[in-house]
Design brief:
- The protein starts with 8 loop residues before the first helix and ends with a helix.
- The chain is globular.
- It has 34 helices and 35 strands.
- Among the domains are: 151 residues, no CATH class; 120 residues, 3-Layer(aba) Sandwich (Rossmann fold); 220 residues, Rossmann fold; 125 residues, GMP Synthetase, Chain A, domain 3 (2-Layer Sandwich), CATH 3.30.300.30.
- By secondary structure, it is of the alpha/beta class.
- It has a nine-stranded parallel beta sheet. Strands 22-23-24-25-26 form a five-stranded mixed beta sheet, with helices on both faces. A four-stranded mixed beta sheet has the order 10-9-12-13, with no helix packed on it.
Length: 1045
């Protein structure tokens, strides 16, 4: 064959760096020149596993002077092959040939990376089941390899190591062969190791290893700058709760800062990865401050942690302090894989007095069962907001969920589909790809559009080298609870997190997740700005889409979906579910396309993360199909309905134009259902259907226009922005108006979007109408307090609207003092915009839109406070009266929302009807104001949660869950006990407020305050709101006894 190469050898070498080993082997056969180029890449990395075929291949390379100098990367895996199943009490085939081959590691004099892999089953062999890879076996592998790397291996030293292993009586009879150990190389040759990774390192303090001079020399190598450890732990299948008493894991972490993270290695590290199969940091405790050095880890650039638990403020500062001498002024990359914040713990006490907030493992393993309750105030927005300013060198921040159990699906299937691996053994492949998340964290995140049925929608090549963390929002910034009284794991949500990684995570308090998301986006924005080399905002570019283009795209979508749904027999008006993010252009095109094709869209956002709930709502609506975000392909494989990914169909324009355009559907009557939305479900526990009728839809569009026209002040071209997902009614109503009126509507890059993006929208793209949820708007206002230019931009807006939650009172007062055009909107999903506050008036009072037909109906009974409470009721003749399925028996829609008319046609909200309880005198009591006063005066230190009850009673009763629940664990319920003291302290603080109240709504005795354990008060499953009537029912006996006094 002609040896002439059309490309330079350097280019060929670059090509070879991306080729898999089978392709390299074939390339070597083409010609001698390509053989010379491909040969070093073919043997650049080699693998030694614990079965004979692998050992033979390894030895052939080790004994070849020509080949062994080409090796740069060694993987040594104790796995004995696919024919043996671990932890099954089978006869373990001790890997004699593998053990005898380990000394040959010293021959690979050019190796710079070493990957050691053990089995995840570890522990004390005589404790429960047989353990194949005992602590002695693991020590023998580690110390032998260290002696080879350090240039300290001798036959005599190897025999000493083996003698220590012979203490394991299971293998005392095994004889290893070292007859071929002399290859004429220097006994003192040190391998230039740069990277050391260990999978399933046992959580056992191996003092035999720590005392080894060879091990100490290896971890002190100046060349070793990359350390990645994945630590395994012993489990007990028969009694999982017993694992808490396995003392060696606590000793492992107690000695970590003087062993694997000693100063000798930490001074040189630029990359550190620490993963553990269970949660760690709090319990088992590891205090990073014990790593010696000032600053700690001075050269570190990359840090990855798995299952590490945050609890204390010092952790924020420690992460900011590392890497201060790396040339980048701190960490450059930080990866947090399943690293939650612990916000509540019930653990055996007393806790460690020397380390406040941490358990003492000696007490837990040796003491009596005496649980204590502890709360931790740290939240993700505390951490991320500080890191945004303190971690000046940070270029990459990722948090999410890695492949903890088995091989990552994307890499597994990428290799399966690669023609270079036609006959690959799937058991071997699955094993080799597993337990690598401590190495693969920088790799691309799993494909959200991965679909085994549609391989064209998935790009396999980028996953051949590994798969990183999933960064679905539900996998990020988690909170967790520890309870020593639960099992099999005391870490609550552990099983749900593993099995349902897409489910919306728990939040300690309502509103915390919103603050966390805002802080997360602010951190990413700061990182993006630094990566772009700017100190201000990074630039975002929007694409203009004209209404003719939008119409064409909707019609292409209609052609596509009509063709798809006709094939399953879907009739006109049939309900089709759409489960999407709701803020991408394609999401809108799919929704409008389904409607234009003559079907009825039923909308779900990705915030509804449980498929079971979606399936239930689809059944209730009698849906015939589901269109979903491509990221949900896998979890919807068992969908009860035909499901279709919402892919980019616009790229198929030429094909779609050949399909017929469906006739335009026109409603035949005012009550025709055009779309279906859902409530949040916070009151009843599950969402309910909200059908949108043709009459309702017309009125909602017109009302939105009337409101915006009423508050329009300066700019002639109205330009709005999505408040949230267009799968919810708030943003949808604004978008409907934009389309109907020919105004402009902007889609942000993400939700919530950074302030830099908002500034661009206003200053460069002419945003006039800003709509934001209150937590995100508060973050903007806080930044505007410090940034006069941002405040100036906000003042150019026609209106700043918000709804769904009240705006923080301090932020609202500041904004009004600055003349910002605030507009609060009151609009439940069932009714769209009901009331709004006019920014021109700047009072915050609500008023109805023009031409509305609502009724403000006085309550039949008096509240005894001089205020006349009015319930907002929508009569059936009102065009926005919702579907008949949502109305009361009288044909009206009773909102349950109460108001007081403070001026003609101007209203102030007074909570919901169920926040006002009727006392025995038929007068009403405002429980909301009592609860707010308790939290204002006692929420910082005494009270965790509060609810006021007492319907039909002479006076109200306050139930509280205390901040410090340990007071309930003692026998201190007497007059001088801690419970009584807590009730008296609360009573003294709230007394000034109650002195001004009517008798029927006053707390005038500490005995009217009842203290119950945290988590006792019944709550709704979604938002976690306390259910007042259910509290009355559950504690009826206590209330009867109290009022009988």
């Amino acid at each position: 064959m002609d040896n002439h190469l059309p490309l330079l050898p350097e280019i060929w070498a670059n090509i070879c760096s991306f080729l898999p080993k089978p392709s390299l082997s074939r390339l070597r056969l083409t010609c001698s020149k390509l053989n010379d180029i491909a040969l070093p890449w073919t043997f650049r990395s080699i693998l030694l596993e614990g079965y004979d075929d692998s050992v033979e291949r390894f030895l052939n390379i080790a004994k070849s002077p020509k080949l062994r100098v080409l090796v740069r990367e060694l993987t040594i895996d104790t796995w004995v092959g696919p024919g043996y199943e671990y932890k099954c009490n089978n006869t373990y085939p001790f890997p004699v040939a593998f053990m005898s081959a380990l000394p040959y590691v010293r021959l690979f004099e050019k190796a710079t990376a070493l990957h050691l892999r053990f089995n995840e089953v570890c522990g004390q062999d005589d404790r429960t089941d047989d353990i194949e890879e005992t602590w002695f076996l693991r020590y023998r592998v580690l110390d032998t390899v260290c002696h080879c790397i350090a240039g300290m291996w001798t036959l005599e030293k190897q025999i000493q190591i083996d003698e220590k292993m012979s203490q394991d009586m299971s293998w005392y009879h095994v004889k290893l062969d070292y007859s071929d150990e002399d290859f004429g190389i220097s006994q003192e040759q040190v391998l230039p190791l740069r990277e050391l990774t260990i999978s399933n390192l046992a959580d056992f303090p191996e003092f035999n290893l720590y005392g080894s001079k060879a091990w100490k020399k290896v971890i002190s190598l100046p060349s070793l700058v990359d350390l990645r450890l994945f630590v395994a732990t012993e489990s007990n299948d028969a009694s999982p709760e017993s694992a808490v008493h396995y003392q060696e894991k606590y000793e492992f972490f107690e000695n970590l800062s003087s062993s694997w993270l000693s100063r000798a290695i930490c001074q040189n590290l630029t990359t550190l990865s620490l993963f553990y199969r269970d949660y760690w940091g709090w319990f088992p405790k590891f205090d990073f401050r014990r790593i010696r050095g000032d600053p700690p880890l001075p050269q570190l650039k990359v840090l990855a942690l798995g299952n590490y638990v945050f609890t204390h403020d010092w952790q924020i500062d420690w992460f900011s302090a590392i890497g201060q001498k790396n040339g980048s002024n701190g960490l450059e990359e930080l990866y947090l894989d399943d690293c939650p914040i612990l916000f509540e713990a019930r653990q055996v006490g007393p806790f460690d007095a020397r380390s406040p907030g941490y358990p003492d493992y000696h007490v837990i393993t040796e003491g009596t069962y005496n649980p204590e309750k502890h709360e931790y105030s740290l939240r993700w927005h505390h951490i991320l907001s500080q890191w945004a300013t303190s971690m000046k060198g940070l270029k990459v921040f990722k948090t999410g969920h890695g492949s903890w159990n088995g091989a990552p699906r994307d890499t597994l299937h990428a290799i399966k589909q690669d023609v270079a691996f036609p006959d690959i053994d799937m058991k071997k492949l699955d094993h080799r790809l597993s337990d690598n998340l401590h190495r693969d964290f920088p790799c691309p995140e799993p494909a959200r559009d991965f679909n085994l049925k549609d391989k064209d929608a998935w790009t396999p090549v980028k996953y051949l080298q590994g798969t990183g963390m999933s960064q679905l929002r539900a996998s990020q910034m988690r909170y967790i609870v520890y309870d020593c009284g639960t099992g099999p794991s005391p870490w609550l949500e552990t099983q749900r997190r593993r099995s349902m990684p897409t489910r919306e995570p728990h939040e300690p308090e309502e509103g915390t997740r919103a603050k966390d998301y805002a802080a997360y986006e602010a951190l990413l924005s700061a990182i993006k700005s630094r990566n772009n080399g700017t100190t201000g905002s990074s630039k975002t570019t929007w694409k203009d889409i004209s209404f003719p283009t939008f119409q064409k795209d909707v019609e292409l979508s209609a052609r596509y979906w009509k063709d798809k749904f006709s094939k399953i027999g879907a009739k006109e008006k049939a309900v089709v579910g759409l489960w999407s993010r709701g803020y991408a252009y394609l999401d809108i095109i799919h929704t409008w396309g389904v409607a234009r094709a003559g079907y009825t869209p039923q909308l779900f956002s990705l915030k509804m993360t449980d498929p079971a709930v979606v399936y239930q709502l689809l059944r209730e609506a009698e849906a015939v199909a589901l269109v979903h975000d491509p990221s949900y392909n896998l979890i919807l494989e068992n969908s009860p309905l035909p499901s279709y990914p919402g892919d980019d169909i616009l790229s198929q324009e030429c094909y779609l134009e050949q399909l017929p355009l469906p006739a335009l559907r026109k409603p035949s009557k005012a009550e025709d259902i055009m779309m279906i939305y859902h409530t949040s479900g916070s009151t009843l526990g599950t969402p309910k259907l909200v059908p949108i009728t043709a009459k309702w839809l017309d009125h909602a569009i017109a009302t939105c226009g009337d409101v915006l026209e009423a508050v329009q002040m300066s700019r002639t071209q109205p330009t709005g922005v999505a408040m949230g997902s267009l799968s919810h009614i708030a943003s949808t109503a604004v978008f409907w108006h934009a389309v109907s009126s020919g105004s402009c509507f902007m889609l942000p890059t993400r939700l919530p979007y950074p302030t830099s993006e908002l500034r661009q929208m206003i200053d460069e793209y002419g945003l006039t109408n800003l709509s934001m949820f209150p937590p995100f708007l508060s973050a903007v206002f806080r930044e505007a307090r410090k940034d006069p230019s941002l405040l100036a931009s906000l003042k150019t807006l026609n209106n700043i609207s918000y709804g769904g939650l009240p705006l923080d009172r301090t932020d609202e007062a500041w904004a009004r003092s600055q003349g910002l055009p605030l507009m609060s909107v009151f609009g439940p999903t069932e009714l769209s915009i009901l009331l709004f506050s006019d920014p021109k008036e700047n009072t915050g009072y609500f008023k109805p839109p023009p031409n509305s037909k609502y009724q403000f109906v006085p309550l039949e009974d008096d509240i005894g406070s001089g205020e006349r409470l009015l319930e907002l009721v929508v009569p059936p003749e009102a065009p926005n009266c919702p579907h008949s399925s949502l109305r009361s028996a009288d044909g009206k829609f009773h909102t349950g929302d109460l108001f007081v008319e403070v001026a003609p046609g101007r209203y102030v909200p007074k909570g919901r009807n169920d926040n006002w309880i009727k006392m025995e005198t038929a007068l009403r009591c405002d429980t909301g104001s009592i609860e707010a006063n308790v939290m204002d005066t006692c929420g910082n230190d005494l009270v965790s949660a509060v609810v006021v009850v007492g319907a039909g009673r002479p006076c109200p009763t306050v139930f509280i869950e205390p901040k410090n629940e340990s007071i309930l664990d003692s026998d201190g319920n007497g007059p001088e006990g801690p419970v009584s003291k807590l009730k008296n302290d609360i009573f003294q603080r709230i007394a000034p407020f109650h002195k001004r109240r009517y008798m029927h709504e006053r707390i005038d005795d500490p005995r009217s305050i009842l203290v119950v354990p945290q988590g006792t008060l019944p709550r709704t499953p979604t938002k976690g709101n306390i259910r007042r009537k259910e509290v009355e029912r559950v504690f009826q006996g206590e209330l009867e006894a109290l009022y009988a006094r």
